[in-house]
Amino acid sequence: MTDDSPAPQTTADPAQRALADAVREIEHHVAAAGWDAPVRVFALVRTQAALAAEPGLAAQLTPEVLAAAAAEPWHLTSIEQEELPGAPDLESLLAGLTWPESVDGAAVTVERIVLPPAAEQHVPDDEAAALEYLLTHPERQDVRLAVGVLRGGAAWCAVRTRANDADDAVGHGPDLVPGLVAAVRSTLA
Questions:
Q1: Can you give the pLDDT at residue 6?
Q2: Around Cβ 128, how many Cβ atoms within 10 Å?
Q3: Residue 141: which H helix or E strand, with range?
Q4: 26-56 tens-digit pLDDT
């Protein structure tokens, strides 16, 4: 995956920078497929280690990615996980995932509907009525969340709204979605 938008501002920590770049690239890749997408899960591995373990991977990577990996030991490659196990919700899916030690981190993308706090107070208790309320509320915002976490603890989030669906309008930061960060982090325990 490649992305020409500017890298988000991060700390001087190389792992944090690499994670921020990986999450930005994942979000951009998922955004290219449009909205109303299912949950997507990615393993994050250090590109140098992946190339050492699987030399044939070099043929699948662009020269720019290979050069970046050679220059930066923390450069990460994302590997989308196909055929995710069935789960009734995101929390159950993440609770059932574990990663081998060769995986340095994990990332997930998910779409959600958010309402202003005042509107959330009026969500009906009935599940069907609550869904109808969310889908028809005039102040609803559709958002795509991309969250990545490394085994060492670093986290990075990207948030895109459907109303401002542009690469330069994506919010970035280490703790924008703390609950989802914690859930993805638990898959690495």
A1: 45
A2: 8
A3: strand 141-150
A4: 999 999 999 999 999 999 999 999 999 999 9
On the 0-12 / 13-18 / 19+ scale of CB atoms within 10 A, 79 is middle
Return d(Cα 106, Cα 41) in angstroms, integer: 7
- C-alpha span between 37 and 99 (Å, rounded): 24
- Residue 105 CA to residue 164 CA, distance in Å, equals 29
Task: Report yes or no: 25 and 56 within 8 Å, Cβ to Cβ.
Answer: no
pLDDT tens per residue across span 177-187: 999 999 999 99
Which H or E element spans position 93?
A: helix 90-95
List Cβ neighbours of 182 (8 Å cut-off, separation of 6 or more).
none
Distance CA 45, CA 181 (A): 18
Give the number of other CB atoms < 10 A from CB of residue 183.
Answer: 19
Query: Domain boundaries in the chain?
Result: 14-45+79-186
Number of helices (H), then strands (E), belonging to the chain: the values are 7, 6
Residue type, 176: L
| pLDDT band at residue 68 under the 50/70/90 scheme | very high
- Output phi, psi for 152, to 5 deg: -75, -5
Whole-prediction pTM value?
A: 0.87
Mean pLDDT of the chain: 91
